[in-house]
Amino acid sequence: MEIKSLKKADTIFDSYVELALCAESSVFHWIYLRDNCTCTECFHDATVQRTLDTFDELPWKVCRQSYSAEAPKEAEFEIREGKLRVRWPDEHVSEFSEDWLRRHSYQPPLSTKPKALSLPAKSHWDRAEFNKLLGDGAHFCTRYDNLPSELPTVLREIYEFGFTFVRNVPVSIEATKTVSELISIIRPTHYDTGVWEFTSDLAKHDTAYTTVGISMHTDGNYWHELPGLQLFHLLEHSGGEGGETQIVDVAKVVDQLRELAAQDESWRTTYKVLTEHPLAFHQSGELDSVFYQADYPTLTLDATGELEQCRWNTSDRISQAPLAPGSPYTVPQVYQALFRLDSLIKDEKNYVQFKMQPGTIFIFDNWRVLHARTSFTGCRRLCGSYLTRDDFLARFRSIVFDREAIKDEIYQ
């Protein structure tokens, strides 16, 4: 590693040092290096939080009246013992190893995303792949008594496949609560503040509290904070039949949509409508609460095109017309896109159907896996919970990756 050039510009934002890292060069701005000093004066070792207020404590100031930066004062740069050493105008010293510089390079980036931040790849499935997974004897086999020791497997299955089962669970709300709290934090809602239990008594004014069939949907589309995970445990179904569960992997449906869009202009429009056009949802059954939001598209994708979140429940949709002012889409295009999505969701090659049994808990990713219920007769009692997504992912990361390795990747 060597210093190739130094540029002291007119502002702190434009001054930089150019380094030769192995056979490549990379530019680091002075403000970036000072902001990311990882010494114990600038970062709290125990909490791994910044203690330096970059925007208020540095010797280089930005005029709060004109919002213009002062010309930078001198800083001394040198390579010492294999590290870039910088003495700043306030005499503070920062040191950066070559490994740190490569991992945090940005102009150009010389490294991929830190391994400790990269979660495993997800596996998308249709009916055939679901049946293969269920029948291979290697997945979804965790028993209640073994859950604490096999929690890494359960969390990984939820993340990778969007669902899992926990078997041989005592048929009780208490055991359901135990499973819920091992996976994440129970999210309170207007339905219940903890584990909820319901049957077809309209105790809440929602079709889930009836015997009618419910089509494929995600829960909570009328909330800005869509429930991350959902957990079902059938407590009883006696004196009747029906009530089977249907699920579909929307990540697989997105794969199919992308393939169709690559071949046909009309499907390209459908893909854009589903990923750009916001739908409005509501929940107005309760006398003391009305929920409404209209800010999100049906499908939200991440930067790689992977499904991040699906919002779909035809029962809770609000009128799609008039469209938002300036919308590039027409009412016919919106309805065609929704019909096409619904057709793929209900394609027999994509969805699966099974009957839940007392003692088996079904956990699924509410951002990815749609669920439905066929109509039923008799007494059917179900309990379950909503679980927070961020806490699930935090627990998953802490199990998959060593915490010290994460700290090293991010800060050291």
UniProtKB/TrEMBL annotation:
Superkingdom is Eukaryota
PANTHER family from the UniProt entry: GAMMA-BUTYROBETAINE HYDROXYLASE-RELATED, TRIMETHYLLYSINE DIOXYGENASE, MITOCHONDRIAL
From the UniProt record, give the pathway where this protein acts.
Amine and polyamine biosynthesis; carnitine biosynthesis
List, alphabetically, the InterPro entries matched.
AlphaKG_dependent_hydroxylases, GBBH-like_N, GBBH-like_N_sf, TauD-like_sf, TauD/TfdA-like, Trimethyllysine_dOase
Keyword hit for Zinc-finger: no
Looking at its record, which EC class is this enzyme?
oxidoreductase
Enumerate the cofactors the protein uses: L-ascorbate; Fe(2+)
Q: Name one GO molecular function term.
A: iron ion binding
Q: Name one GO cellular component term.
A: mitochondrion
Q: Which family does it belong to?
A: Belongs to the gamma-BBH/TMLD family.
General function of this protein:
Converts trimethyllysine (TML) into hydroxytrimethyllysine (HTML).
**Would I find Oxidoreductase among this entry's keywords?**
yes
Query: Which catalysed reactions does the entry list for this protein?
Result: N(6),N(6),N(6)-trimethyl-L-lysine + 2-oxoglutarate + O2 = (3S)-3-hydroxy-N(6),N(6),N(6)-trimethyl-L-lysine + succinate + CO2
Q: Where is the TauD/TfdA-like domain?
A: 145-386
Q: In which organism is this protein found?
A: Eremothecium gossypii (strain ATCC 10895 / CBS 109.51 / FGSC 9923 / NRRL Y-1056)
Q: For this entry, list what GO says about its biological process.
A: carnitine biosynthetic process
Protein name per UniProt: Trimethyllysine dioxygenase
- What EC number(s) does this enzyme carry? 1.14.11.8
- Domain Gamma-butyrobetaine hydroxylase-like N-terminal intervals: 25-102
Q: Which UniProt keywords apply?
A: Carnitine biosynthesis, Dioxygenase, Iron, Metal-binding, Oxidoreductase
